[in-house]
Write a structure and sequence with these properties.
Oligomer: single chain
Helix content: 40-55%
Strand order of the largest sheet: 1-2-3
CATH superfamily of the largest domain: K homology (KH) domain
Number of strands: 6
Order of helices and strands: HEEHHEHEHEE
Structural class: alpha+beta
GO molecular function, one term: RNA binding
Shape: elongated
Protein name: R3H domain-containing protein
Amino acid sequence: MEAIDQVKEITEDFLKRLDISGSVAVDVDETGAYRVHIETEETGLLIGYHGKTLESFQIILGMLVSKALEQWVKVYVNVGDYREKREEALMLMAQHAAERAMAAGRPIELSNLSASERRVIHLTLAGDERVETESTGEGSRRTLLVKPKTI
């Protein structure tokens, strides 16, 4: 059995055990990571508050797949078009924070973001010459600062 089919089968089994029905599609991206796409009527249940349930589902699925394939692999899970919409919202949030930081002349703090969400903000503002970004703090208290660049 090919690895991609194994990933699909593991995902379908995991969903069945959670009593969630849906269809699963899997492909491999240019980095070799498995992209699992789930279409279900129960998107809210699978995504959870601010994507926390989806994040946990992805971690557990990654562990199940890595164990089955007997090698560490990266697995990304998307439910419906949640990740695309969330990324768009984060990019907009980054641009608004940059504008606010410039207008106020002081750093703007963005909190309650996951590591991947902070990464989207950093990447979005990397090309903006007016501001710089910095993550501070530890663990769940980690925040992202959007600061006007000093000349």
